[in-house]
From TrEMBL:
Catalyzes an amino-pyrimidine hydrolysis reaction at the C5' of the pyrimidine moiety of thiamine compounds, a reaction that is part of a thiamine salvage pathway. PANTHER family: BIFUNCTIONAL TH2 PROTEIN, SI:CH1073-67J19.1-RELATED. It is an enzyme of class 3 (hydrolase). It comes from the Bacteria. This is Aminopyrimidine aminohydrolase. Keywords: Hydrolase, Thiamine biosynthesis. SUPFAM superfamilies: Heme oxygenase-like (SSF48613). Pathway: Cofactor biosynthesis; thiamine diphosphate biosynthesis. GO terms for biological process: thiamine biosynthetic process; thiamine diphosphate biosynthetic process. Homotetramer.
Amino acid sequence: MSFSQDLLTRAQPTMDAIMVHPFLKAIAEGNVPDDVLNYYVEQDEHYLKDYLTITALAVTQTDNHEDIAKLLDVAQFIGNESKAHEVMLGITGHQVENWRRGPETLLYVNHMYESAYRGTYADTLAALLPCAWSYEVMGRELVAAGANNEQNPLKEWIELYAPNDDSKSYTIWRFEALDREVAKLTPQQQEHVAQTFLLSLEMEWRFWEAAWVQEKWQFNI
Ligand SMILES: Cc1ncc(CO)c(N)n1
């Protein structure tokens, strides 16, 4: 069994929990409460800025030309995600004004920065992967369930993340790169990479949850 196949088995319970999270159910039904959408967009603006920076850090850790080209494509795609945010803000009429990272956002991006600054290239790939992978699975499942119907105000948002061609995965190259890179590591380092991936995946669940419960810092500073 490949490293990433084993990883997917270990990741399954977390992924299952993400897919049934009430926030995702509300996206499917097109009835996410406004304050949840606003919280999500504000935190995701922070998240994506950091994600872009960490993607750039990943570029500096490898000399594999194909990976570099793919990572630059990812950087390009992150620009499209502002459009996804506009879909959500179009529903609520809100403007982004909270420029403070919430607790879960900070935990998540710090985990990714730590992986990039202190880990191997494989750690950085692993830290970045659950973001793309969980949204691909989500997009695919939402479209399969017909959630991107004309009545759903989040139709465009959903379609941004669903693969265009059903058979094509936009994250498969990342798993292949991960398998190639971990082959260079010791078993101990490989387990570190696995933990890095699984922690980012848990952070995906926590990111939805934080918006759903409107998680706040204790003090306003
Ligand atoms: C937290 C989070 N994870 C994944 C994505 C998809 O890029 C996103 N926009 N935000």
